[in-house]
């Protein structure tokens, strides 16, 4: 199933824009309860004003709140970014640590966020269990676990470690584009014949095609990566 999904999304990648580990870490924290598209709209201004961890830690709270307002829960997110910047300065001399054990000790950073940073900024394989990944892993019969950490470990046992980061991208892409939470496009799914949950969504191929999103939607913009 993974091979077939990889063929559908060979260009799957982290959809948060970043140039440095710090930028990816902050962007991932900001992505809670909002879309990557929204985060990508605010981070250029955020990082142009406060490019380093020390700058983030010393930022004026109300000014940062206005920058982060479009992401929702902007006061809480501002507090998280300020605390995150301060912790990186105090504990790691201003540099994002490349180890899971260190990352998860930072304020507001859990295993999901840590694995995003490790896999995409440091090249360390990791499984990112967001809502899409967990939903698909259960729908496709890979695990019955609900807890994200248990899902991570269960799925990790099924795949070589070298595939973990790309596996995460592929499942997240599929969850966002085809296997939606409320109305999956079963009739347009490349793994339909192997999926134990086939039929929970629209099975008619033509109707299912209309449910596809992003570059897969009929008439949608072709993927560039």
UniProtKB/TrEMBL annotation:
PROSITE patterns given for it?
ENDONUCLEASE_III_1, ENDONUCLEASE_III_2
Q: Tell whether 4Fe-4S is among the UniProt keywords.
A: yes
Show the coiled coil region(s). Answer: none
**Superkingdom of the organism of origin:** Bacteria
Per UniProt, the enzyme's principal EC class comes to: lyase
Q: How is the cofactor bound?
A: Binds 1 [4Fe-4S] cluster.
Binding positions ([4Fe-4S] cluster) = 179, 186, 189, 195
SMART domains recorded: ENDO3c (SM00478), FES (SM00525)
Q: What cofactor does its activity depend on?
A: [4Fe-4S] cluster
Q: Which reaction does it catalyse?
A: 2'-deoxyribonucleotide-(2'-deoxyribose 5'-phosphate)-2'-deoxyribonucleotide-DNA = a 3'-end 2'-deoxyribonucleotide-(2,3-dehydro-2,3-deoxyribose 5'-phosphate)-DNA + a 5'-end 5'-phospho-2'-deoxyribonucleoside-DNA + H(+)
NCBIfam families reported in the protein's UniProt record: nth
The job of this chain, per UniProt, is described as: DNA repair enzyme that has both DNA N-glycosylase activity and AP-lyase activity. The DNA N-glycosylase activity releases various damaged pyrimidines from DNA by cleaving the N-glycosidic bond, leaving an AP (apurinic/apyrimidinic) site. The AP-lyase activity cleaves the phosphodiester bond 3' to the AP site by a beta-elimination, leaving a 3'-terminal unsaturated sugar and a product with a terminal 5'-phosphate.
Write the protein's name: Endonuclease III
